[in-house]
Write a structure and sequence with these properties.
41% of the residues lie in helices and 18% in strands. The protein has 17 helices and 23 strands. It comes from Orlajensenia leifsoniae. Keywords: Carbohydrate metabolism, Kinase, Transferase, Xylose metabolism.
C-alpha cells in the first residue's frame, strides 16, 4: 500500500469515527469551516461562504438569518469537499470550536429575543461612552468593545436597555445556540469587558465601578449578571445539542454530542494559528480589518488610546493594536486592474491579479515615490477619524508608476497599524518575531517583506497562514480533546495534560515550516519616510470626511 493511500485511509477512518476537530470562523467577508485530523497540522477539508455586512440606519450589521444561512453554506461546502477527497461524509466530530469577529454587541431580553440589530466592531458611534469608561476605569476602552456599546445605549437612553438580560459577541451567540451555554473564551471576553489576568475573569473592581456609574441612569443594570461566563482554553464549554446540530446541518446527517471548546475571537485564533502565545511574540492578522497582538512580559507603564489590553486564549496579557481598515481598499484596486485586464482581452483570476500587482510593488521606490494611500473605508480611532474616505494623495513631484502606486497601497494597509506599533515600541516592548496571517500573505515574500520593513522586525509566515483563524479555532478544539483525554488519563494515573503554549510547540508546530523574512534596511527607511508623510496627511483625510 502506498503512503498516500495509507494517509487517505487513516483520514477516512478518523472522519468516520469522529476523531477530528472542526473549526468555524465568522470573518468580515467570509465564513469558513476547517476540518483537521488527529494531527492538528493535517487540514482534511475547508469550506467557505462569502457574506457582507450591511449599513442599516447608520449601523454596520449582519442579520441573524445571514449568520445561520451562511454557516450552513460553509459547513455544506466543507462536507462536499470531505466527500470528494475522502469518499465519506462526517456525522460527528471529536470537538468543535466557533470563532468570530471580536467585540460588538448582541443584546437579548429575558425571552432570548434579540433587542436591536447586531452592532459590529466596525461601528464608531460609541465615542462618548468609550471616553467616559476609559476615564472611570483608568483603562483604555476602545469604541468597538461590547461594554462601550452597552454604555452608549445607556447614555443615549435607548428604550431597549431596560430589557437587556444578556449580551455577548458573535462567537458567543453562535456557541450559545449550538450548545445552550452562555459562555465565552477569555480572549473574546477581553473585548467585552476588562479582564483581570490573575483570575482569568472580568475585573471585579471595575464591575463595581460600572454598576455605580450607571446607578442613576440605569439602576436595573448589574453588568456581571448580563455577561457570559468566562472560560480559558482547554476547558469544556458544552456539547452540540440536537437543535445545534440542525442549525449547522439542516440535512440531519450531523449527530449531536460533540464537545465544544470555548468560543473565541479572531484575535485569539490568530495567536494560535501563528504560535504567538508566549511573551515577546506577536502576530499580525490582515483582512477587512488589520490588527497586531503582542504578548507582554510586564504591564505597560501608561494608558494609551492606541493600545487595547486583551488576553491570549489562555488568559495571559496582550497589547492589541486594532485598526478597522485593512486590505479591502487594496482588494478594490486589484479588482479595478483585473477588470482592465479583462476589458483588454487578457482576463486573469483574482489570485493571479493579486500576485502580479503585489510583486510589482517590490519594484517600487522604498518610500513609494512620494505617493500616499489611505485605506479608510470606515472610521479609524487611532487616526482620529470618525468616518472613512479612501484617498490617494501625491505631490506634483512624486513619481506615479504602477510599482510605486502598488507599494503605496500595501503601505497604506499597514499605515494606521504602524502608528499604534510605534507607541508600543516607545513603551520599551521588544519583539523576537512577528507572525503574519491572512490572504494578503498568499503571494510569497511581498506583503511579508514590506510588513517586516514597516515593523522593523522579522516577520514569519507559516504554511497554514491562508487558513487563518478557522484553523486556529480548530486547533483550540483539538486542544480541548487533548486536555479531556489527559483528564481521563489522570484518573487512571497517566499524563494529566499540558498548557496551551507547550501543546502548540510540541503537538502543532514541532515540524511546521515557517518562512521568516528579516527587515531590509532600505524598506525600513523608506517606510519611515512614507509614515511621516502619512501622519502629516491625516489632516487631508479629516478634511475629506467633513467635505465629502
Amino acid at each position: 500500500m502506498s503512503d498516500s493511500t495509507s494517509t487517505t485511509d487513516a483520514a477516512r477512518t478518523a472522519i468516520l469515527e469522529g476523531r477530528t476537530s472542526l473549526g468555524i470562523e465568522f470573518g468580515s467577508t467570509r465564513i469558513k469551516a476547517c476540518l483537521i485530523g488527529e494531527n492538528p497540522g493535517d487540514v482534511l477539508a475547508v469550506g467557505s461562504h462569502e457574506w457582507e455586512n450591511q449599513f442599516v440606519d447608520r449601523v454596520w450589521t449582519y442579520s441573524l438569518d445571514a449568520v445561520w444561512s451562511g454557516v450552513q453554506a460553509a459547513y455544506g461546502d466543507l462536507v462536499a469537499q470531505v466527500s470528494r477527497d475522502h469518499g465519506v461524509e462526517p456525522t460527528t466530530f471529536g470537538a468543535i470550536g466557533v470563532s468570530a469577529m471580536m467585540h460588538g454587541y448582541l443584546a437579548f431580553d429575558a425571552a432570548d429575543e434579540l433587542l436591536v440589530p447586531f452592532r459590529t466592531w466596525r461601528n464608531t458611534s460609541t465615542g462618548p461612552a468609550a471616553a467616559e469608561l476609559s476615564e472611570s476605569f483608568g483603562v483604555n476602552i476602545p469604541l468597538r468593545w461590547s461594554i462601550a456599546h452597552l454604555h452608549q445605549a445607556v447614555l443615549d437612553d435607548e428604550a431597549h436597555v431596560s430589557d437587556v438580560a444578556f449580551f455577548t459577541t458573535l462567537a458567543g451567540y453562535v456557541h450559545w445556540k449550538l450548545t445552550g451555554r452562555k459562555v465565552i473564551g477569555v480572549g473574546d471576553a477581553s473585548g467585552m469587558f476588562p479582564i483581570d489576568s490573575s483570575t482569568h475573569d472580568y475585573d471585579a473592581g471595575l464591575i463595581t465601578i460600572y454598576d455605580g456609574l450607571v446607578a442613576d441612569r440605569a439602576p436595573q443594570l448589574r453588568v456581571a449578571e448580563l455577561l457570559p461566563e468566562v472560560l480559558v482554553a482547554g476547558e469544556a464549554a458544552g456539547t452540540l445539542t440536537v437543535e445545534g446540530a440542525t442549525l449547522l446541518d439542516p440535512t440531519g446527517a450531523l449527530q449531536p454530542g460533540a464537545l465544544l471548546c470555548p468560543p473565541e475571537g479572531d484575535a485569539g485564533t490568530g495567536m494560535v494559528a501563528t504560535n504567538s502565545v508566549a511573551p515577546r511574540t506577536g502576530n499580525v492578522s490582515a483582512g477587512t480589518s488589520i490588527f497586531a497582538m503582542v504578548v507582554l512580559e510586564a504591564p505597560l507603564a501608561q494608558v494609551h488610546h492606541e493600545l487595547d489590553l486583551v488576553t491570549t486564549p489562555a488568559g495571559d496579557p496582550v497589547a492589541m493594536v486594532h485598526c478597522n481598515n485593512g486590505a479591502s481598499e487594496l482588494a478594490a484596486w486589484v479588482s479595478v486592474f483585473s477588470r482592465f485586464a479583462a476589458a483588454s482581452g487578457s482576463p486573469v483570476d483574482t489570485d493571479a491579479a493579486f500576485g502580479v500587482l503585489l510583486r510589482e510593488a517590490l519594484e517600487g521606490e522604498a518610500d513609494a515615490g512620494g505617493i500616499i494611500a489611505y485605506n479608510h473605508l470606515a472610521g479609524e480611532p487611532i487616526a482620529g477619524l470618525t468616518e472613512g474616505r479612501p484617498l490617494v494623495v501625491r505631490t506634483p513631484d512624486s513619481r506615479l508608476t504602477l510599482a510605486n502606486f502598488m507599494r503605496a497601497q500595501v503601505y497604506g494597509v499597514y499605515g494606521t497599524l504602524s502608528l499604534g506599533m510605534r507607541v508600543l515600541a516607545d513603551e520599551g516592548v521588544s519583539l523576537d518575531r512577528m507572525f503574519a496571517h491572512g490572504g494578503i500573505f498568499r503571494t510569497a515574500g511581498v506583503a511579508q517583506r514590506l510588513l517586516a520593513g514597516a515593523l522593523d522586525a522579522p516577520v514569519a509566515v507559516g504554511e497554514t497562514a491562508s487558513e487563518g483563524g478557522a484553523w486556529g479555532i480548530a486547533v483550540l478544539a483539538s486542544y480541548l480533546r487533548a486536555t479531556s483525554d489527559a483528564a481521563s488519563g489522570a484518573a487512571s494515573g497517566t499524563d494529566s495534560g499540558t498548557d496551551l503554549g507547550t501543546y502548540l510547540n510540541e503537538r502543532v508546530f514541532a515540524d511546521a515550516g515557517f518562512d521568516t523574512v528579516a527587515p531590509v534596511a532600505e524598506d525600513v527607511a523608506g517606510f519611515a519616510t512614507f509614515l511621516d508623510r502619512y501622519r502629516a496627511g491625516l489632516a487631508a483625510e479629516a478634511a475629506a470626511v467633513l467635505a465629502l
